[in-house]
Specification:
This protein is mainly beta. It is built from no helices and 15 strands. The two termini are about 25 Å apart. About 15% of the residues are buried.
């Protein structure tokens, strides 16, 4: 049997949640006030700055001079400073665990661009990941029986379960009941359609 991964169906997914979060606060200095300075050719520039994280501030202004607009700039220190409180959240993430279903490709008709999928069987595929570390342990069951396969053929209604543990000891579990299709299934152009003879 071969799988057509273009038509997966998400049966169950869990995890990738924030856990063990810690919040830290820091005092960050900023600068404000009236900045003023003169350009090299003697033009005076000024600007009020409400907040800048650098004390050294560059003023850029366009001025109409001798029949044309010209761009002038100069730099000065901002006269005032204050502090604001910055909060930072640091979290771990639970591993992600997913059980996907895939139809089993039976045949393909190039004349009509139709793919036929077998009746009475569907594939349950186990996928897992961990965004902030590594997956350390994976446990899978089908109807209570442990399996090490990455995907299994399901020929009758079955309870499928996946448990994933990451390197921080965070655990995610997900489970679902998977039902095989009762009759042949077809697709065309990536969309499911009624097979001839099913209506």
């Amino acid at each position: 049997m071969s799988l057509l991964f273009a038509l997966p169906f998400l049966a169950s997914a869990a995890g990738d949640k924030k856990v063990k979060c810690e919040t830290t606060t820091n005092q960050l200095e900023y600068y404000y006030g009236l900045a003023s300075c003169s350009t090299f050719d003697g033009h005076f520039l000024s600007e009020y700055v409400s907040k800048s994280y650098s004390q050294w501030y560059t003023i850029i202004q366009d001025k109409y001079d001798n029949g044309s607009w010209k761009n002038y700039r100069c730099s000065s220190n901002l006269p005032n400073s204050a502090y604001e409180t910055i909060s930072n959240e640091s979290c771990q993430y639970t591993p992600k665990a997913s059980i996907n279903r895939h139809y089993v490709e039976e045949s393909y008709d190039s004349r009509t661009d139709t793919t036929y999928y077998a009746a009475g069987v569907i594939v349950a595929q186990f996928t897992f990941s961990d965004r902030d570390g590594e997956v350390q342990k994976v446990e899978k069951w089908v109807n209570g029986q442990s399996t090490t396969k990455s995907h299994v053929d399901i020929t009758s209604a079955s309870e499928v379960k996946l448990k994933v543990t990451d390197n921080d000891g965070n655990v995610t579990e997900t489970s679902t009941t998977v039902y095989p299709p009762m009759m042949q299934t077809c697709s065309r152009g990536g969309q499911l359609i009624l097979c001839e003879g099913n209506f």
